[in-house]
């Protein structure tokens, strides 16, 4: 009876528990190669996991707000508010700790790379004349790297192979390293306005490249991801002070047409996964 009453009194927490269980079970089944049939261009298991993750993202609150509520719960008599705050914290933690869906097809990854094509805007025109050359040097090669990545994705779609996937793996790391190096260079710009314009432009590209990196990781084995990470000399931890999480969240939300809360969880999960992998 207590269990039933708890479900009735705390429906959101109970729903989060069921969604976490569904996403976890789906992830384990996917890792074991169990698909339970096809659903659209994917599998039933991936569909269940994706829906559970999306719904958890909607249930989760901003962790900073939840933390504030939890720290003040001793001063509050509203049990419902405290319970909702706990739900936000635990749902977000669960999303961050759940393993990413393994076994994404290389074809779906290649198609997503085309959809995520990164481009560099004309920020140089907004910079102080003395700062424009530094920005130009820092971002030299961005367009070429983007075009090469898209060309390799198209080649993989036309003829999927281990070699084509290896080229995607190598190129996305090269591009990610270019972005990280550019962020460090832009940080040296003294003029605050010029520096902000430069960082904004590079962050816009960096968000896309990090999304593509996560996609390629999802289609790679652990050994392949380890090799990719070994080629990463400028780590995310080094450039983290120059990353704009708010803009990254807005970019992801706009790209997928999803709520900001869900996009925030996705961005955090991708960054955590990349850091754990050694990038």
Layout of strands and helices, then pairs:
Blueprint: H1 2-9, H2 11-31, E1 38-39, E2 42-43, H3 44-59, H4 63-71, H5 79-97, H6 106-115, H7 132-139, H8 142-158, H9 162-186, H10 192-218, H11 222-230, H12 236-239, H13 245-256, H14 260-277
Antiparallel strand pairs: 1-2
Helicity level, as a percent range? over 70%
The number of helices is 14
C-alpha-based Rg, rounded: 21 Å
DSSP strand count: 2
Mean pLDDT: 74
Instruction: Classify the oligomer.
Output: single chain
Low-confidence stretches: 61-103
Strands ordered across the widest β-sheet: 1-2
Distance between the termini: 49 Å
| Secondary structure category | mainly alpha
Shape call: globular
The run of helices and strands is HHEEHHHHHHHHHHHH
What can be said about the biggest beta sheet?
2 strands, antiparallel
How much of the sequence lies in strands comes to: under 5%
- For the record, the count of structural domains works out to 2
Quick summary of this structure?
With 279 residues, the protein is an all-alpha fold.
Overview of the structural elements:
The protein has 14 helices and 2 strands, in the order ααββαααααααααααα. Helix 8 runs antiparallel to helix 9 (162-186). The radius of gyration is 21 Å and the shape is globular. It has 2 domains: 2-97, no CATH class; 106-277. A two-stranded antiparallel ribbon has the order 1-2. It is mostly helical.
